[in-house]
Fold:
Amino acid sequence: MTRRSSTEGLAQNLPAAPFIAGRWEAASTSPTFDVIDPVTERTLITVSEAGATSVDRAVSAAREALDDGEWGRMDGAERGRLLNRLADLVQERADEIADLESLDVGKPGIEPRMIDVPQAIATFRHYAGWADKIDGRSTVSTSGYMGRRTLSYSIREPIGVVAAIIPWNSPTMIGSWKIAPALAAGCAVLLKPPEDAPLTSLLLAGLAQQAGLPAGALSVLPGRGRTTGQHLIEHPGVDKISFTGSPETGRIVTAAAAEGFRPVTLELGGKSPQIVFADADLDQAADGVALGIFANQGEVCAAGSRILVQRRVYADFVDRLAARAAKIVLGDPFDPGTTMGALINSQQLTKVLRYIDIGREQGARLVTGGGRPDRAGYFVEPTLFADATTTMTIAQEEIFGPVGTIIPFDDEQHAIGIANDSRYALAATLWTADLGRAHTVARLVKAGAVAVNGWSPLDPRLPWGGSKLSGHGRELSWAGIEANTQEKTVTVIL
Ligand code: TXE
Structure:
């Protein structure tokens, strides 16, 4: 049996239904949706969708778990123990989870093995550590009350029922970014996996149950955005929404949240600059920049899709980058030689190919790629456009595919001007040997994360998020706890 066929078997044996109040819902009359393999274009499994009544039940179960159940009474140390147990179970099944993610998303096996699954484990462990350390930060003797002394302090409480809506590009890792801090904080979580890639979320629901998470603490609600997602964001019993996806859907989420004045955390992608100065180690920079735009088929919120190169080394650097692109091997994620997989679905394929046409029409120079291989699957060749200008569509809009737009610049100020000429502000990389310049430019570039001479190491201790069209709020680190809690001030008149 090959790894592909055993992973397809694993997928077919997953419970393909909503997981609510500790039970899998029986496939009923609710509508279903097909999960398509992006490489073969065949249906992997058919999943029952969580409709309005399922969402209602999940919200009630979450409320009950918080207000009357074991979950609401559990102390932080015990929540931490359960999160560590969940991390152990994910670790035990790491290879299978990585394979499921490859099958579902179309990404080469090495990526979930090196990034998504280890990051999910690290995130569950990180928040297991926070769970018993969530205290209010203020203890104050106030200026007094009617001549009497006072003592005030703050306590930090779970925000309540959290809807976590995740995208298809890295569902295992991004799911952990939302589930782990919310559970550590003592919230109940309703996870809405992406309809294009729900497999690892379905597996995780079973692992959470095996870890001993009480009923209602985590429900998993597979379904389409306009049905399950919309029911969830409009539900008055949801106290907070954490969303990663497109700005268009982010607007819908924000509008629904505004109805009930509920807080939202939004991560909406980017058009991140990678700035290569002439004094950089150009080989190291070319390796890093190629990784930054081509990893995960370019379907990465932080993808470095705008490549700004100082004019003095511009032609040389474009050649070096093109040489890296030429070495990329497109193929089945289960073939050991594959270094780039397929895009998630036919709409994404059409979208990316349309941007490539626009790049050509607007006069950027196609250096490499630009087409799709003659085979089944939603593949697009690694593509580089050079001699682009900052006003071109391919320099402004998120393509979310393996398409890099290269723009020349003259000096530091020019580079910063181009880098900040964007509606997005999520991430940036700088490549330079000049330490002073690194710190100066890092400060001036508008982004939530800046890395110098490499990519920001993913680490749950570091906050993650952006501004402008990239969204607002931060995930991970202590910020993840803050996003899932609220402080209450208690004053005692002595
Ligand atoms: O995103 P959506 P799509 C960008 C990327 C991509 C584009 C479209 O440019 O090409 O978005 O992708 C759920 N109420 N990013 O259409 O719609 C949906 O089911 C509630 C960047 O897949 O934003 C899924 O679970 N939920 C991004 C999630 O939202 C709704 C990652 C994301 O889907 C909903 C993904 C609704 N009305 C795409 N409609 C990043 N930040 O990296 C949809 N959803």
